[in-house]
Amino acid sequence: MTDQRANDVLWLRDRPTAAPRKAEPLSVARIVAAAVAELDEHGVERLTMRRLAQRLEVTSTALYWHVRTKEDVLDLAVDHVLGEVPIPTETDPRSAARVLLVDWRAAMLRHPWSPTLLGRPLLGPNVLARVEFLQATLVRAGLVGDDLQVATKLLSNVVIGTAMNDASWRRLDNPSLVAEVGRFIVGQRDRYPTLASSGFLDDGSSDDELFVRGLDRVLDAVGLGCAPRR
Amino acid sequence: MTDQRANDVLWLRDRPTAAPRKAEPLSVARIVAAAVAELDEHGVERLTMRRLAQRLEVTSTALYWHVRTKEDVLDLAVDHVLGEVPIPTETDPRSAARVLLVDWRAAMLRHPWSPTLLGRPLLGPNVLARVEFLQATLVRAGLVGDDLQVATKLLSNVVIGTAMNDASWRRLDNPSLVAEVGRFIVGQRDRYPTLASSGFLDDGSSDDELFVRGLDRVLDAVGLGCAPRR
DNA sequence: ACCTGAACACCGTTCAAGT
DNA sequence: ACCTGAACACCGTTCAAGT
User: Fold this and answer.
1) If you count Cβ atoms within 10 Å of the first and of the last residue's Cβ in chain A, which end, N or C, has fewer?
2) What would the mean pLDDT of B174-200 be, rounded to a whole number?
């Protein structure tokens, strides 16, 4: 039997008013933030409702009060990444589009798990705001009708394709493996003569540099004038 | 006790030499074929080692004698899809590249689950053979050095980005949902004025048409001459 | 309204054992 | 060499129950 009087003395009660303090309550925003952190640290295959809950110090089943499925969490995480892409302030349409797309790619590569999750239609508010800005910029540049649709799709496809490809290399953080792939190709130079001798997988020029050079050409091709004159 | 003499008479033995007939033995090729079929029918989220085994009439654990992990199966399935892309016979470099890329996209869209699996480095023999052909074609067209790398990456990124995007719409086989997305955007025309009025998601022109128009421009931009003259 | 606990119907993979 | 059966350590999700 414990001493009853202990509970009569305010200061002796165990953490009285500020007692269990359930930390801040759960919310969709907190869930998404935790998901992004977990994905950044451990990648997509380690993200589990149970691990996510653990990080938030709740039961895994608690998440389902705020979120309908795990897929919802992933969709929200992708949109969160797009939220990191600033809306450009440039006035020249070409440089506005250019900056947007460069930053878009950069955001996805900062979170290399994100390109793999682009499989579902991208309809989050942050995605749509960026696509809206892109297309509005193209309209300002004088594009209309099918030319406008072609340009919008082409530009976003270039970014997504790049992100997908380049991210796949960044995810395998083993740098020696890239070299091994190089040797693998060169070792079959009879099968892949061009790839072997062009140094396809060497990093003579960086991913980023090759991307912007390609992007500039697409911007030309799509009718956004030539490289920015100054 | 059964009559012993029955087993002495050849014709009375139960299915004597051609007895249990374990069907054809398992093999990596059979596993991959079954995986592609399963993916085509039920999509990526339903592909399970257990279901795959069931389709092949073996135990799920039997698969692991032929294959190291489920990821191996997926990698092989992707490479199988690329194997469906014919190597063009056109002599003109521009049309050779064009045909390759159009067929490449078509193959991925016939198997709409495949773009989602492009997350890992593409190093299968069928992929490499197509990339080798593409780059060899670009060399024939006179590209070298960084221009060659830029063009190779840009073109494959355009195809991958397109496949990713367009496949995501084909996977949700619910056609009314596309219309619903259209209404969703138009319903927020104050937020997305350009998207709402440009009919971004209407299918005025088909995916395929928008793609080839974009592709032709990229081919121009990359230094492959202008549209095929005839 | 918000969270817990127990439970269901699954997973991928390992490994000893059979033939 | 090739396959089975049992088992391990997980999953996502539902639902009654607590506060």
Assistant:
1) N
2) 88
Does this chain's domain B6-80 share its CATH topology with B87-222?
no
CB contact under 8 A, A171 and B128: no
Superfamily of domain A6-80: Homeodomain-like (1.10.10.60)
Out of A123-137, A150-164, A189-203, B119-133, pick the least confident.
A189-203
The residue of chain B nearest to residue A178, with distances taken between CA atoms, is B121
Is the CB of B47 less than 7 A from some atom of nucleic acid strand C? Answer: yes
Task: Please report the number of interchain residue pairs, chain A to chain B, with beta-carbon separation below 8 angstroms.
Answer: 173
B87-222: which CATH number, 1.10.220.10, 1.10.357.10, 1.10.220.30, 3.40.50.150? 1.10.357.10
Q: Do A164 and B221 touch (CB under 8 A)?
A: no
pLDDT in tens, B127-174: 999 999 999 999 999 999 999 999 999 999 999 999 999 999 888 767
* Chain D nucleotides reached by a protein CB under 7 Å: 2-7, 10-16
- % of chain A beyond a pLDDT of 70: 86
CB-CB neighbors (< 8 A) of A210 in chain B: 146, 149-150, 153
pLDDT digits (tens, 9 = 90+) for A88-124: 999 999 999 999 999 999 999 999 999 999 988 889 9
The verdict on a CB contact (< 8 Å) between A198 and B149 is yes
Q: How far apart are CA A23 and CA A2, in angstroms?
A: 30
Would you list the domain boundaries of chain B?
Answer: 6-80, 87-222
